[in-house]
Each structure stands twice: as C-alpha cells, then as structure tokens.
Amino acid sequence: MFALGGFHHSPAFPAADNAPHCSYQLDFTVDMVKPTRPTSGRKYPGDRRVRRRVRRGHGAGGLVEEEGTRNKRVANMLHEVLLALSGHPSPLFRNPEANATADPASIHSLLSPSEAALLRSIGKLAERHRELRDRVRWIESKHRSTICRAVAIGIQSHLARLQQKILDVESKILTKDASVVGAYDIVPLALIVTEFDDWHRLMEWIWATACLMQAPTSQTGTLDAGDGCSGATVINYLRAEANTGFSEIEKASTELSRIAELAWLRQLAPWIVYGKLPAFGAGDFFVQAAQGDDVAFRVVKELIPDFLAAAAVSSILFIGTCLHQIQRLPPHSTPSVASTSHRLADTKLAPEHLQHLSSLPLPMNQIQLTRAISTIRLSLSQNVLQRLLPMRDITRLLRCLRSYFLLGHGEFAIAIIEEAEARLQARQQSMGRLLRQDPLKALQDLSIKDTELHQTLSSAWKRLAREDYAEDMVLSFARQHMRLSLPNAKAARPASSGSVSRQTPQISSIAFNDLLFPSATTLGIDTGQPLDLFISPRDIETYAAINAYLLAVRRAQVRLSELWRRTSARRDRTIKKTVTNRRRHFRKVWATSSAALHLVSETAAYLEGEVVKGSCDLFECWVEHPTSNESLDDSFGSVQSTQAPEVAQRDPETLAAAHRTFVASLSYSLLLTDVPYTRDLRSLLGNIDALIAFFNSLLDAQQKADLADEAISGGDGYTADEESRLGLELDRARKKVDSDLRSVVRRLRELDHERIGAGRYLEVDMSESGGFEPWRGGGVNRLLMKLEFERVADEDARDLE
C-alpha cells in the first residue's frame, strides 16, 4: 500500500500540440488516454499518453492491482491530492469512511487506517484552503471596513505562497527530486503530507482571523456586511496575536499588522492633514461627524485602536476639527483670519505633516505615533491657530466666566437675585387678582417663560451698566453671549475641545437651579467658532451647575439678612401680653436664623473667596504667562515656522486640556461632587426658604391682627386661627432648618476625615492636563474652623430644653 511504499511514477512524455496537458499521469498495465485538469490552474495544450508497468514485488509497499477500473482510480489519487490542495473540489475527500462503506469498489476501500489518516490530514488542509479562499474573496469585495479589506488582500498573499508550495512539490515530483521520489520512482504519500505539515497551524490561524473579520454565523445564506467587525478590532487582534511562540504565526500576524495599520494611516492622513473625513470607510474611522451637524465631530471609543493613547486621540480630534473650521471660513473674514485660511494652502505644512506620518515604522510604536501627532499639532498651532484664536479672546472668555458664572462680579449676583425676587413678587400680586377672576388661566401662568428670564437678565445688565461698568469689554461680551433660559433637554453638540480625557467632573445630581425661580433655570453662554476650540458644551454645563450652586448659597445669605430689616419683628414698643408671647416665640426663630446665616455666609466666603479666587488666579496666570519651553515644546521636534510667532502662547489643544482639568478640580474643591453634602445643603436651602416665607406670612398676619384689635374691640377669630396655624408651620420649618444645619456640619466633618493626604485634592493625570497643576489651597478644615458650629448647636439645644 502507498502508506508504506507509494505511487510508482514515470516521467511525462512530450505532449501533442492539440491535446490537454497534465503535469503527470499514473497508470497500471494498460495504455490509456485521459485528459485531466491542470494542478495549479495552468493550461497546457496537448494530451499525454502514459504507459506504466506494474512492478510486482518492488518494495513491501508496492501497489498490486489487476482490475483495470481500480487501476485508473488509484492512478489518479496523487493527482487529486495536489488538485485538492490547490483549492479544487475533489471526490477523494468527501467523507472517506462513508464512501468506503457504501461502495466496496471505491478507492477508499483499498486504504489502510494509516493511509486514511494521512489523507484526512491533507483533506482538512484542502478544505480549509477552499473555505478560506471564498471567505477572503467576499471580505475583499464587500466588507464595510477598508482595513479588513486590506487585511483580506494580505491574506491572499499567504494563499499564493501555499499555491507556490504546491507547485514546488509538483516540480520535485517531475524532476525526480530525491527528497520526494524514492527508489523505483515511488512517491511516498507520507512525504507529500510532510511537505505541508507547517501549513496546518498557519491556515487554521488565518481562518480564525477571517472569521473574526466576517463571522460565519450567516453562512447558511449570504454573508451580511453589517455583521463584520471594525478595523480597530482587527488591528488589536493582530497586534495581540504577534505575541506567540509559533514563528509562522508571529511572522504572518506582523505582516498583516503592517497592512492593517498602513490602511489605518491612510484613513488618518486626510483628517489630520486636511481636516476631511476619509472618502472611503469613514464609518470605520474613530472620528465621526455629529448627527445633524456638519461642523461638529465626536469620538467613537469602540473604533480607537489600542496603540493610540488618550492624549493622541484628543489631539487628532482637535487638529482635524481646527482644519475643518479653517477650510469653512468665509473668504471675507477679518484679515488675520483670512490669512490663516490661506496659509495652509500657501505653505508646505501639508507635505511636512504627511512626511511625519509616512516616516512612522510599521507596526507602529505608541510613543513614536504620539510624538508625530504632537509635532503636527504644535506646528499647526505655531503657524495657523495663534491667528485664529489669539490670547486676548481666551483671556476675555475666562474673565467672563469668572465674573458672571463663578460670581467674581459680586454686583451681578446681587442684581440677578433682586431682579428675580422682584419679578416673583409681581407675579404673586398679579396671580392673586387673576385667581379671583380666572383660576384656570392663573394656573396656566404658573410656569416661568423664557421671555421673563430674558427680561430678568436684561434688567441685571442695565443695572450693572448704570454702575459705571458700561465701558467694560468683558461686560459687553457677556451681554452679547450670555443667556438665562429654561434647561434644554436636547443634548448639546460635541465641540472641538471635547476629548476622551478622564478629567471629567462627576457633578452631583442634586439640582440647585430651581431656587432662583420656581422652575429650573440655567445660565449659559454661546461661544461658537473658534472659541469652541477652547471650551466645550460640557464645560459650559459644568459652569452652569457651579453658578446655580453658588447663586443658591448667596441667595440664602441675602434673604436671611433681609429678616433683620423687618424692624417691626424685632421692636415693638407696645406693652401687651400677646407681644411678650410673640417675642418669646420668635426668640427660637431668631437663634436658628442667626445660625443659618452664619453657616451660609461662611460657606459663601469660603467657596467664593478662597476656592474660586485661588483656583482662577492660578489658572489665569498659567494661561497668560507660558514659559518658552512650554509654548514651543522642542521635546517633540516640532515643525518650526519660518517666522517666529508674534505672541508666545500655548496651543489651543493644551489650553483646552488644562481648562478641563481646572473645571474638574474646581468642582471637586467646591464640594459639588459629593452627593451627601449637596443633598443636605439643598435641603437646608429649601427649608430656609420655607422658614422665611412662614416668618413673613406670620408677621403680616400679626400686623393685621393688631390693626383689627385697634379697630374692633374683641379681635377677629379668623385672624387668630390663621396666626396660630402659621406659628405652628414656622416652628416646624425652624426645626427642619436646625436639623439640616447639623447634617451639613456633620457631613463637612466627615469630609474633613475622608479627604486626608492626597485625597484632599483631585487626582490629576499630568499627561491629560496639558502640564497644568490645579490649585491646592485650604481644605474643608478651614471652613469648619470658621463655622464654630458646635458652640452654637449647644446653645440651641439648651434653648430647646
């Protein structure tokens, strides 16, 4: 049998010009003419007549057969093996065990178990070759990812090597190479199998790669392009598979990684050089256009390859968006901006940036890629962006945010609080009349409308303008761009400064924006281009949350201070028993109000006077006074322009990263990220409003009762009952305020114990902060020392006893 010996082989005779050709032909005892298929797809003219003698007894494995039909079947076996390995279907490998059972005359009935095992090994490789060839052709032509298509083309080269290996084995047989052809021209099947032993593991790995790119779950019908994986997934898989102990798999994965990463670089190049998304395969690129907005872009984290650092992702998004905005600038812009838009086309920036990308070695190294992207970013900043977004625009925006969002301009906070209170009082008076006339319409007018909010903010601006702030450029900028409105449920579009940075503050979900008005309101600012290169909508939302938080504390301070302006509540020269009882009853209210005023005043002073002031002073100084090595950053080998920049400043992407870190650190220092504290403080501020409301209502009721006593002898029973009810509600509100005061101080003490050591400040990753280190001033202990609430609480407890 051929497992021990092999097939007897004779050299091919010259072929006729008009007959089909086969590389070789096996035969036994009879002459025959048999047109056969070429082994490797080659076409040769002619027909070959081969005559082979049966040499009986030559070797223990010599094949002896007398029946002519079986001779032909066995004679074609070696030919069929090489044809099957080339990817052609063959009946030789169609379930050999079933064929041998069904047809005793089949070739499989002549095989020993060892021979069948050898054929199964070859058959498995042949079947994998056919499946892989069909799958790769489908991926190459129909896959949605251009990276996967490129990898499929790379796999074709490996299949071509297998085909070349088959041709080499065929050539050895034809030339009677001693490594394949034995004595008496016998070709052992075991040697043929040995020639392809190194291909089994590699073909299985390539098949797994093809199945990753296009899952085989839908093979029952047609393959669906929507089921394919992304290019980033394939790149990550190939880079991980290169770390193996099998040299053939390591070599193949490295080659395919180069192909995949080169295709990825071709996606990156138009975006980072020209500000345009890839013309083909844009859905597989990690930068995507925002839905419904052709000027905003977002990052899809699932499409980011693992070799790309978070800082590099942020820089890529920033660079492409800047270039996209520059390309969209109108031709009749300001001279500096117009020169900026033409500078990209007139200089050699684009070729230089392309050279940085093309010089990257493949497979890519994360450090080298990050360095190249940083070089392009700094080159773009030095040559273009300093004219598009000058330092004066950034500093003006920062001063606007500090003055009006962070309440650095104290008169603005007082003006908007008083305007809001005046508008609410006017609504209450008109509501009382409307309730008597048309209750249904009165209920419909309860909600605050955007028109009223706009009028409130406009009145505050006019009030500031009358106080010698009319020539303030920051005030003029704020009046043009700031707005007070109802919260917008629609998500804001992503901005150019958005990134995948972890420096994102987790603001508490406790809302403070429903204290200024009965309905939730928010203070916003319209930045637009090019300021959105520096500040993102998420940053503006954080500023709005901080503004509502600080304004709520300041409002409670103002309203509690107004209680002492009610002279009639503190002084009453009439000597009556009822007045004495009222004073005794109000004594507890005054004590609670004094404690609450002390707490909110010290809290406002700490938050605004220490945290906000210290943080803003440090950040503004860092922005306005860059060092020379930071502004030019020679460590990355940046592309220097022919002319030195007019104003030394950091690039906008670095400023945006530092600003995100500043906002996150400020939120943490303001305790706005702590849910228990914000919940207790929000409850305290709400109960303070209730205390003040019941206090004013009770005082008005008492004044009405006194007037009724003077006018009518005996008094009014209804007024007395109303006074008693309001007194009871006031006492309940006072007790709630007392409880909330203790809760707030208790939580502050807990925070003082929790935030110790490095926990006192927000942990900052310097690689994502643009080199900015946030303010590290006093902690919660400074606020606790100022409160001295324990003594006040003990006195309060003694009064209650």
Automatic annotation (TrEMBL):
Residues 78-388 form the Gamma tubulin complex component protein N-terminal domain. Signal peptide: none annotated. It is found in: Cytoplasm, Cytoskeleton, Microtubule organizing center. One of its GO terms (molecular function) is microtubule minus-end binding. The keyword Cell inner membrane does not apply. GO terms for cellular component: gamma-tubulin complex; microtubule; mitotic spindle pole body; spindle pole. It comes from the Eukaryota. Its main location: cytoplasm. Belongs to the TUBGCP family. This is Spindle pole body component. It comes from Friedmanniomyces endolithicus.
